[in-house]
Amino acid sequence: MRFSNEQHEYEFLARLVDPETFKEKDVTITIDGGRLAIQIDKYGDKCSVDGEGSPIVVDFYNYRLKVLVWADINKEDPTHSIDLDGDKEDKRVEDHNKAMKTQDDA
Which of 9, 18, 39, 61 has the most C-beta neighbours closer than 10 Å? Predict the structure, then answer.
């Protein structure tokens, strides 16, 4: 793990292990300001040199979280952009059946 307080950059190293084959993939997670970038060994994006790309980015901008994915290394822009606004805990809708059962038990 690397930590640089002056630049507000954090870097974590991890290893993914396939439970079937036990093959491994090294992963680097970098947090820099409002971005969390995930680098995976042998994966990248169009605008980065080999070994430096981040095909998955979590972006925090305008108080909104978005997951950006580059699923095609030949495309400059993300192939997927997922806005996580609908996943906020305060937007959870109570399960109607559970609410009815609780009322019946009372």
Answer: 39
Q: How far is CA 29 from CA 21, 62, 88, in A?
A: 24, 22, 23
d(CA 38, CA 78): 14
Taking the CA of residue 81 as centre, how many other CA atoms within 13 Å lie in the half-sphere pointing to its CB? 5
pLDDT, tens digit, for every residue of 61-93? 888 999 999 999 999 999 999 999 999 999 999
Q: For residue 65, which of 87, 45, 85 has the smallest C-alpha distance?
A: 85
Work out how many domains the chain is built from and give that number: 1
How many alpha carbons lie under 13 Å from residue 45 in its C-beta half-sphere?
19
What is the extent of the structural domain holding 33?
2-105
